[in-house]
């Protein structure tokens, strides 16, 4: 199991493709070189100004070290103003423990379920009936955020998984997500210039 961040950014109207192109061109390899595993990146199909993505770390110590390396490094310093100019909120972040998630190639849509405050025993029964390893089940990581420059949501207990399932009996939020690939981003950017 890894430490996983589910990051949901609210962007300025019309800025999503600009951020995606910058993210794919600069930030994927930039983070990887700092020891961060970048997982799925998505357009929220129900919110045109929303970009959702995951990144993974082996443990909290590696997370702090890798975030310090990336956010003080040359790639972020060179492109942070352009990235920040696309965003109105980048603080909607869940700190989780789980396997991470990257959709298989060719996936057109992913359903993500965020389940709030599930009762532990009842959730275990639900999960045994409805979830399998392909759902990539995650749970809240309650460790203190030791990189406070990037806030995470606290005081919540959630379970997150990917793929269709019967809705659970607890409060949930479902996200319909379109995976981003470098090719999609470049094709869309070229299409907007024509």
Automatic annotation (TrEMBL):
<protein>
    <recommendedName>
        <fullName>NIPSNAP domain-containing protein</fullName>
    </recommendedName>
</protein>
<dbReference type="InterPro" id="IPR012577">
    <property type="entry name" value="NIPSNAP"/>
</dbReference>
<dbReference type="InterPro" id="IPR011008">
    <property type="entry name" value="Dimeric_a/b-barrel"/>
</dbReference>
<dbReference type="Pfam" id="PF07978">
    <property type="entry name" value="NIPSNAP"/>
</dbReference>
<feature type="domain" description="NIPSNAP">
    <location>
        <begin position="4"/>
        <end position="86"/>
    </location>
</feature>
């Amino acid at each position: 199991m890894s430490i996983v961040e589910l990051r949901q950014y609210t962007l300025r109207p019309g800025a999503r493709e600009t951020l995606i192109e910058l993210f794919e061109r600069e930030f994927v390899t930039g983070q990887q070189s700092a020891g961060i595993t970048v997982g799925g990146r998505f357009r929220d199909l129900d919110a045109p100004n929303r970009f959702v993505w995951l990144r993974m770390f082996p443990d909290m110590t590696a997370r702090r070290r890798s975030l310090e390396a990336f956010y003080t490094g040359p790639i972020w310093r060179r492109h942070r103003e352009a990235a920040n100019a696309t965003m109105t909120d980048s603080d909607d972040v869940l700190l989780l423990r789980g396997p991470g998630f990257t959709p298989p190639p060719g996936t057109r849509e992913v359903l993500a379920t965020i389940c709030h405050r599930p009762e532990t025993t009842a959730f275990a029964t639900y999960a045994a009936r409805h979830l399998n390893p392909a759902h990539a089940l995650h749970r809240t990581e309650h460790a203190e955020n030791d990189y406070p420059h990037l806030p995470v949501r606290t005081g919540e207990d959630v379970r997150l998984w990917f793929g269709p399932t019967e809705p659970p009996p607890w409060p949930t939020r479902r996200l319909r997500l379109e995976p981003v690939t470098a090719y999609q981003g470049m094709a869309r950017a070229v299409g907007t210039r024509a």
